[in-house]
Structures are given as C-alpha cells and as structure tokens.
Amino acid sequence: MPIVAMTSMASSNNINLVQCHYSQKGYIYTPKNSIFKASLLASGSRNAKILGQTFIVKANVGSFDKGVETVNGKKVNGVHLGDKSGIGSQEYSYHEPDDRGVLLGRFVEKRYVYRQTFAIRSYEIGPDKTATMETLMNLLQETALNHVTSAGLAGNGFGATHEMSLRKLIWVVTRIHVQVEKYSSWGDVVEIDTWVNAAGKNGMRRDYIIRDYVSQKIITRATSTWVIMNRETRRLSKIPDEVRNEVTPFYLDRDAIATENIDHEKIKKLTDETAVRIRPGIAPSWSDMDANQHINNVKYIGWILESVPLEILEKYNMGSITLEYRRECRQSDMLDSLTSVKKRLHEENNNNSTTSDRNTRCTTDKECTHLLRMQDDKSDIVRARTVWTLKH
C-alpha cells in the first residue's frame, strides 16, 4: 500500500525541515535536494493496488517550533503560523495518477449507485485483528450520509434532505439485516456500494454491498428499512410528496440480498426466564448521541454484545445480524441487555446419503436472540438475532 510520511529533521544550522515521502511498490520518492538518502521500503501490503494522490506540502523553515503550515493549500488544523522575519517557506509537489477516486466517494451506474473506499484502521479492529460488526455498520452509515451529500440533497439534518429539514423531519432505521462472509483485517481496503429504493408507501430501503478492494469479491451484504420521524415530536410521519420527489429520481430496483435469503422471521421477545445471560445497568453517555439528538443506531450493537457469553465471542464469528429498532432511548435511560443461545444445525446437501449419515456431518453454529430494554418499565428498545460460526 502506498505510504505517505512526513519527517521533521533538524540540521546543524538550527533549521527545521519537513521531508515528504511517497512510497509505492516498495520504493520511496523524495525531493531531489533531500538531505538524507531514502532507504528501500517494502510495505508488503496486499493492497498495493491503491492509487496515489497529489500532495502539496508547505513547510516553514526556521526555528524548531515551526512545522507544516499547509497541505494542498489548506491550513493544518485551522492554525495559521504567520510569517516572521528570517522565516521562509518551500513547497514540494508530488503527482500520481488518480483514476478511481480512492479517498473520495463517487457515483457509478448513472448516479444510482454511490461508491466509497475505506482502509480498516487499527482502532477499528477487535482482539482477532479484524474489523468488528460495529466498524462495518459505521462504514455503511458514513457511506449513506456521503451519498445524500454528494447527491446535493443534504439539508441541515443528519442525512435529511432539504425538504425534510424545512419540515423538521429526520430518517430513522426500523430494521437492518447484515450478512458477513469475511471480515477484513487491519490495513485491508474495502469498497462499499449503496443505493436506495422505495419500501412500501412510507418507507425507504437502503442496500449495501462491501467488496474487498483488491480481489473485488463481495464480502458483506446488507439491507435496511428507514422511515421518517418528526425531530421535535419524535413521532413517525408519512413521507411528504416534496420529499418523495427529491429521492425518487435516485431509486434503483435492485436487491443486495435476495428476498428469500433475508431474515424475515419475527424476533421473539426475551424475558428474565428465557435469557441465559442478563447484563443490567447499561448507561448511555453523551458521546453515544448523534447529530439528530438520539442514540446512534450503531451503539446498540455494542450493548447487545455485553450479554453474549464470552465463549461465543472468543471462538465464533458473527455471520449475520438482524436488528429491529422498536423505540428510542435517551441519555438518562438505564438499559438491560439480555441474550439467549441455541444450536443451529445445517445439513450437508448430499441426496445420496442416508438420514443418519447426513446427521453425522451436521455443522453446529450458534444462534442468539437479544433484547435491549428499559430497566424501569421493561419496554423494548431493540430486538436482535445473530448467527455465529466457528472461527477457522
């Protein structure tokens, strides 16, 4: 994977220089007047296919308390260092081809599908060094929000259109189903496609697929249903015609997951008697709130996992998750997380085998049912179902 590094070095005459390096396919490129020799770097990344970007870095030359001032003409962190006597500046410019928009999302297929690429960061992985379900859900959400913005529809709400903002309306998710074939590792790059379609008379469906950037193999599929809520009354609303006219031109009649493969089964409500583990007293914090002033839907996943037995978390991968969002909770609410576990049997498809033979070749997965509820009145917040497969 290409690496861009900036190294600050001090010379004997008390001058602070900022050197910019760009490495690709095992080589480093440095300014011609570099004060040091570049050593050969072999990143060894499976994502060496990623294309480079253009960087123009302006470095202050002077005392040690000065550093990079601008990148591509923009002030670093909004700080302007100013000009002082005896301090100059120098620009280095590096140009590499960029024909796929690696860092920025773009429309494909006549603006019906929005595509964005992400690298899996070190803080987005779990103990097994692969991306977590929460990471995947955050990336899906980010792609969806950028889709709305890039389409020119974004108003002043979190993913709301212009007409929705005028009417104080926001989108809220009611159900989401995610199927994961493979979790990406730290440093891998994924490519996410998203598109929207109608869901009944007053809903919108948003689908996603995630590909491995190098192999282009689809590794995750997801589908979700959204409805409109009034931001102030917190009550659901019909989709106004003005809003429908905004979003309809972007509708694409395509399913990320075939209808017969989607988890449509009703999720049963857990009780103290049917749950095998209960984690009481979960307290939402201020950081769990999003720009629409409610708990971000991704936060619920972490709270659900609080009551999953440790053995499952350590030995199994979450192959799929289905979430039903039933009501909001506030920062002041206290929650309980409940989980039940059962075996999930799959027979190998071999018509020549006897029933007893097929049974001996059954693979055992785990299926968990989850509930997040209010601690005071026991009312449902989120019901969920997860399927877990043994790690290899």
Automatic annotation (TrEMBL):
<keyword id="KW-0276">Fatty acid metabolism</keyword>
<dbReference type="InterPro" id="IPR029069">
    <property type="entry name" value="HotDog_dom_sf"/>
</dbReference>
<keyword id="KW-0378">Hydrolase</keyword>
<dbReference type="GO" id="GO:0009507">
    <property type="term" value="C:chloroplast"/>
</dbReference>
<dbReference type="InterPro" id="IPR049427">
    <property type="entry name" value="Acyl-ACP_TE_C"/>
</dbReference>
<comment type="function">
    <text>Plays an essential role in chain termination during de novo fatty acid synthesis.</text>
</comment>
<keyword id="KW-0809">Transit peptide</keyword>
<keyword id="KW-0443">Lipid metabolism</keyword>
<dbReference type="InterPro" id="IPR002864">
    <property type="entry name" value="Acyl-ACP_thioesterase_NHD"/>
</dbReference>
<keyword id="KW-0444">Lipid biosynthesis</keyword>
<keyword id="KW-0934">Plastid</keyword>
<dbReference type="Pfam" id="PF01643">
    <property type="entry name" value="Acyl-ACP_TE"/>
</dbReference>
<dbReference type="Pfam" id="PF20791">
    <property type="entry name" value="Acyl-ACP_TE_C"/>
</dbReference>
<feature type="domain" description="Acyl-ACP thioesterase N-terminal hotdog">
    <location>
        <begin position="112"/>
        <end position="246"/>
    </location>
</feature>
<dbReference type="GO" id="GO:0016297">
    <property type="term" value="F:fatty acyl-[ACP] hydrolase activity"/>
</dbReference>
<dbReference type="GO" id="GO:0000036">
    <property type="term" value="F:acyl carrier activity"/>
</dbReference>
<keyword id="KW-0275">Fatty acid biosynthesis</keyword>
<keyword id="KW-0150">Chloroplast</keyword>
<feature type="domain" description="Acyl-ACP thioesterase-like C-terminal">
    <location>
        <begin position="281"/>
        <end position="389"/>
    </location>
</feature>
<protein>
    <recommendedName>
        <fullName>Acyl-[acyl-carrier-protein] hydrolase</fullName>
        <ecNumber>3.1.2.-</ecNumber>
    </recommendedName>
</protein>
<dbReference type="InterPro" id="IPR045023">
    <property type="entry name" value="FATA/B"/>
</dbReference>
<comment type="similarity">
    <text>Belongs to the acyl-ACP thioesterase family.</text>
</comment>
